[in-house]
Amino acid sequence: MAAQLKQDLGVIAELTVGSSGEFTVWVDDQKVAEKTWRGFPDPDDVVDAVRDATPPT
Length: 57
Hints:
- The chain has helices at 2-9, 43-53, and strands at 24-27, 30-34.
- The protein is an alpha+beta fold.
- It has one domain (2-53).
- The protein is globular and about 35 Å long.
């Protein structure tokens, strides 16, 4: 996921250890994607969510 964010958006992701099985994507203080009982979010949906939450440069 971090590689796809860098490739598609030029975003350098900071990876931190969470609870077992946790997958949450934050942009600043805003949660934009997370793993649910159905599983991991689609990578393209995560990229779109990060793009939408990132201010234009």
